[in-house]
Amino acid sequence: MATLIDGKKIAQEIKEELKEKINSLKQEGKSIPGLVTILVGDSPASQLYVNSKSKSCIEIGMHSKIEKLSSNISDSELLDLIEQYNHDNNYHGILVQLPLPNHINEQKVIESIDFKKDVDGFHPVNVGKLVTGNNSFYPCTPYGIVELLKRYKIPTSGRHVVVVGRSNIVGKPVANILVQKKEGANAIVTVCHSAVKDISQFTKSADILIAAIGKPNFINSGMVKEGVVIIDVGINRIEDTTCSKGYRIVGDVDFASVKDKASFITPVPGGVGLMTIAMLLKNTYQAYLNFQSGN
User: Fold this and answer.
1) Mean of per-residue pLDDT scores for the chain
2) CA distance 42 to 37
3) Distances from the Cα of 187 to the Cαs of 116, 163, 206, 223, in angstroms?
4) DSSP bridge pairs for 69
5) CA–CA distance, 150 with 171 (Å, rounded to integer)
6) 10-35 mean pLDDT
């Protein structure tokens, strides 16, 4: 049976490392990193994510603030608030919780954030730096994937990584990170998407398979080779009357089907998802260090 890649354990390790560094800053009488999260509207899912991020900040001693805004806020009002935080030296990271209401131009909002405070890694400047192999903020979920591979000492250099999905949040950035000629990367990367007629011809050749398509239990044992490393990014809610909530959470990979074929595998839940917030905190700490050094 495959070795479970424990995202909960690694995420906690990263939080403890950051907590120790922030405690040292406090003992030295220095300022501490700060993150402001902007929430537009009252989506229960978004509120849950934002509260979880704030709780994690507090847990490690980082300064956290949540700006809760009406769903009726105008583009200009939101952009003015972001500009205010762009110039507020108490906050080194700015995160606007997505998705935004339909009347707000999401891309315009992303581009309005100072790229030095873009701890989500979505600003075009940071995307460009990522693609060209320069130092930048990696989007948090891809960053978490790379960190899991690194901490479980799973080699990537020269190995065939197949990414199923091409979103701007996961698929594209993780492919661009892993193709770089760097330690913890240097892989041969194939990106598969909906235009592929027979996806299994690619997934069967993967040494490392990253599934991020939002289709429950899509990848099964017949689609992968023996010894594959599987990183399941999917978080899908499916109906299950045997559960008290009436549903259960599954990934994009049929875990039961592939667990005896894979060498390593991330569970859902308990895998990649928990790493996202940990890497957000790590990006915010790095933004703070950049600010302190004048970069």
Assistant:
1) 96
2) 14
3) 28, 12, 11, 20
4) 40
5) 18
6) 97
Residue 250 is encoded by which pair of tokens? 């599954």
Q: How far apart are CA 172 and CA 275, in angstroms?
A: 18
Tokens of 28: 């030295």
Rounded distance between C-alpha atoms, residue 6 and residue 220, angstroms: 21
H-run or E-run covering 30: none
For the chain, report the end-to-end CA distance as a whole number of angstroms.
Answer: 47
In this predicted structure, the answer to whether residue 53 has a pLDDT above a threshold of 90 is: yes
Contact in structure between 217 and 250 (CB atoms under 8 Å):
yes
Catalytic sites, residue numbers: 53, 97, 120
Tokens standing for residue 56: 């994690």
Taking the model in full, what pTM does it have?
A: 0.95
For residues 204 and 221, what is the distance between their CA atoms, to the nearest angstrom? 9
Angle at alpha carbon of residue 262, lines to 260 and 266, rounded to 5°: 105
CA dist 190 → 22, 78, 165, 203, 272 (Å): 39, 38, 10, 9, 20
Please name which of 271, 273, 245 lies closest in space to residue 5, comparing C-alpha atoms: 271
Q: Smallest Cα–Cα separation from 108: which of 81, 78, 86, 65?
A: 78
Structural domains in the chain plus CATH codes: 29-115 (3.40.50.10860), 140-272 (3.40.50.720)
Q: Is 250 helix (H, G, I), strand (E, B) or coil?
A: strand
Q: What 3-state DSSP class applies to 190?
A: strand
